[in-house]
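User: Please fill in residues for this 403-position structure.
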C-alpha cells in the first residue's frame, strides 16, 4: 500500500464485507464467552480476545518489521521504524513497572518469571541473521504472516509451514550450538546492573537518540485529511486506507504490556514451535533431549497435551481471526491461488524464519519487542542482527536485478 493511499478519499463501504466482518466478530465474541464460562478458561478467553484486538491493530496499521525496515532502507521512509521505536518505548516503561511487582529487587542471579531474557552468544547473532534473511525471502516476519493469513495471502500459509520445518531444524541443531556457544554465554539483564530506573532510563535514552536520527528521514509533509463530520465518515477512516504508523506502534506497545499482566510476555511462535516439537518427537526426528532449552525464558516450545488449549495458541488464533474481520471490513480480504514462486519463497523464507526464531528463543515480537522491553541485551542484539540481514538482503536483491 502506498503512502498516498493513507489519506485517499474513503471508498464506499462494502455491505457484504461489513456483514462478513460482523459475523467473524460475533464468532470471536462467542468464543471468548464460551471459554470464559469454562472452569479455568478465563486466561484462554483473555488470550483469544486480546489476540483479536492485536490482529486488528496489525492489519489496519500494516505493522510489519520487514516492511518498515524495507521502507527505510529502500525508500528512506522512517515512519515504520519510528512506529517500532514507539512500541518499544511504551513497552519499556510498562514492562519495567510490571517487573517491579514480579521481582522488587533485581538481584543478580534472579530473573523475572517467563521474561524473554536470553543468552547473548554467537548463536543469537546467527539466529537474527537467519531470521532477517527469512523476512527478505518470504516478504514478512512471522507476526505479519499470521495477520496476512487472515487477509488471504497466498504466501503466508507456506511461510508458516516452512517456519514449522525451520523449528525442526532448529531443534536438531540445538544441542551442538548449546554446547559450542550458548551454554557458556552470559544472560545480560540490564536491571541487574542499573536497577529498574537506570535500565528504563538507558533504554529510553537510546530510543530517543534513535528517534532523533530517524526523524530526519520522514517524508515531506502531506496535507492533513479533513476532520470527519459524520459517523459514517469516521467509520470509513477506520475501515479504509491505513491507520497512521504512530497508532500502530503505540497500540502494539500497550498490548504488549496488557498481555503480560494476565498471561506471559507477548510472543507469536510458542504454539508453532510446540506443534513442531510434538511432531518431531512423534516421528523420532529430534534428539531425545534438548540440552538446557526448557530452562530459558522466551517463546518456550514445551511439549503440551492439548496445544489448542494453550494461551499462546488462542492468542495467535485470535490474531488471525481479528485480522480476517478487519480485512473483510476494509475490503482487503483478497485470497489468491499461489504461484510457484510464492510457494518456493514462502517455504524457503519460512525455513529461515523458523530456524532463527527457535535458535534465538523468539522472533521479532517475542525476542526483539518483549525482550528489549524487559531490558534484555539479547533483544537488542537480535534486533540489530535482523536489521543487518534485511539491509544486506535488500542490497543483494538489487544487485541480482541489475545483473
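Assistant: Residues filled in for all 403 positions:
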Amino acid at each position: 500500500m502506498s503512502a498516498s493511499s493513507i489519506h485517499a478519499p474513503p471508498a464506499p463501504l462494502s455491505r457484504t464485507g461489513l456483514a462478513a466482518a460482523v459475523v467473524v466478530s460475533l464468532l470471536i465474541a462467542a468464543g471468548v464467552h464460551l471459554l470464559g464460562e469454562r472452569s479455568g478458561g478465563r486466561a484462554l478467553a483473555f488470550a483469544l480476545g486480546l489476540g483479536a484486538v492485536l490482529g486488528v491493530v496489525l492489519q489496519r496499521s500494516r505493522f510489519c518489521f520487514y516492511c518498515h525496515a524495507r521502507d527505510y532502507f529502500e525508500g528512506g521512509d522512517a515512519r515504520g521504524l519510528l512506529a517500532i521505536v514507539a512500541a518499544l518505548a511504551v513497552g519499556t516503561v510498562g514492562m519495567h513497572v510490571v517487573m517491579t511487582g514480579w521481582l522488587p529487587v533485581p538481584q543478580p542471579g534472579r530473573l523475572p518469571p517467563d521474561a524473554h531474557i536470553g543468552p547473548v552468544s554467537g548463536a543469537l547473532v546467527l539466529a537474527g541473521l537467519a531470521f532477517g534473511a527469512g523476512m527478505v525471502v518470504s516478504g514478512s516476519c512471522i507476526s505479519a504472516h499470521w495477520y496476512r493469513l487472515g487477509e488471504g495471502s497466498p504466501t503466508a500459509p507456506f511461510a508458516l509451514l516452512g517456519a514449522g520445518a525451520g523449528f525442526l531444524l532448529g531443534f536438531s541443531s540445538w544441542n551442538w550450538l548449546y554446547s559450542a556457544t550458548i551454554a557458556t554465554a552470559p544472560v545480560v539483564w540490564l536491571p541487574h546492573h542499573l536497577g529498574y530506573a537506570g535500565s528504563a532510563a538507558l533504554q529510553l535514552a537510546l530510543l530517543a537518540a534513535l528517534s532523533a536520527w530517524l526523524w530526519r528521514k520522514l517524508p515531506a509533509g502531506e496535507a492533513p485529511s479533513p476532520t470527519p463530520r459524520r459517523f459514517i465518515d469516521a467509520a470509513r477512516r477506520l475501515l479504509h486506507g491505513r491507520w497512521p504508523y504512530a497508532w500502530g506502534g503505540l497500540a502494539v506497545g500497550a498490548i504488549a504490556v496488557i498481555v503480560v499482566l494476565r498471561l506471559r510476555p507477548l510472543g507469536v511462535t510458542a504454539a508453532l514451535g510446540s506443534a513442531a516439537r510434538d511432531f518431531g518427537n512423534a516421528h523420532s526426528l529430534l534428539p531425545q533431549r534438548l540440552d538446557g532449552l526448557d530452562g530459558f525464558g522466551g517463546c518456550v516450545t514445551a511439549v503440551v497435551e492439548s496445544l489448542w488449549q494453550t494461551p499462546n495458541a488462542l492468542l495467535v488464533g485470535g490474531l488471525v481471526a481479528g485480522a480476517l474481520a478487519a480485512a473483510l471490513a476494509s475490503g482487503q480480504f483478497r485470497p489468491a491461488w499461489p504461484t510457484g514462486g510464492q510457494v518456493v519463497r514462502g517455504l524457503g523464507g519460512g525455513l529461515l524464519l523458523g530456524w532463527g526464531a527457535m535458535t534465538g528463543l523468539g522472533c521479532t515480537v517475542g525476542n526483539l519487542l518483549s525482550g528489549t522491553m524487559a531490558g534484555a541485551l539479547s533483544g537488542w542484539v537480535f534486533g540489530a542482527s535482523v536489521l543487518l540481514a534485511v539491509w544486506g538482503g535488500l542490497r543483494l536483491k538489487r544487485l541480482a536485478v541489475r545483473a
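For context: Residues 156-182 form the longest helix (27 residues).
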